[in-house]
Design goal:
Order of helices and strands: HHEHHEHEHEHEH
Largest sheet: 3 strands, parallel
Distance between the termini: 49 Å
Shape: globular
Structural class: mainly alpha
Strand content: 5-15%
CATH topology: Rossmann fold
Number of strands: 5
CATH class: Alpha Beta
Strand order of the largest sheet: 2-1-3
Amino acid sequence: MRTSCVAVVLLVAGQAWAEEKKPHHSAVTPAAKKDDFWVKRHHAFLDRAKKGHVDVLFLGDSITQGWEGAGKEVWKEQFDPLRAANFGIGGDRTEHVLWRITKGKELKGIHPKVFIIMIGTNNMGSNSAEEIADGITAIVHELRHQRPHAHIPLLGVFPRSQKPTDKARDKIKDVNHRVAKLDDGKHVKFLDIGDKFLTENGELTKDVMPDYLHLSPKGYKIWADAVQPELDEMLKK
């Protein structure tokens, strides 16, 4: 009896220690927005999920949402045939995507074979590289929990700012270095395609990112072509 009591105490203590080790900051705290634009898109995603038949789901911020704008022709050609859906909302940070797939229940009714994640750039001004990586990690873990058989091509945060010497570039590299460790060789594949958007000297050009952040049609074509081989392989599994 005494042994059982000791075991229970150790178990509870272990759980408490695990909770203490979990990060606690804004990037990992699920949060919803209240503005009409965000709420409208969220409900549109819920309606889309009710229809089912989603094999590939893109999750992210305005860069992902842009598949409906500058990237719409590329999407129509390369992703529509794959039964893909776009759940991107402009301005979203890791905590917003985390809320959408947990409390927001955006995955209810759908079982994508592949999740393509592009998130984190909007956290750059409010969170450290470590915190941003924590937020991305929380999203990946949640997707693995809810849809354990799905595959995740986890995209490194895309480069931003024109010059390679900009401080944001170093922070992005730090984030990507941290989340690259999520690659498990089976369900999660880290894909850092950022260099494909850059010139030989590491600069961004307006024909790829007009504002040095959001993609042009050319930029979306680069993105699509970079992930297509991996995506095709994952859909076969």
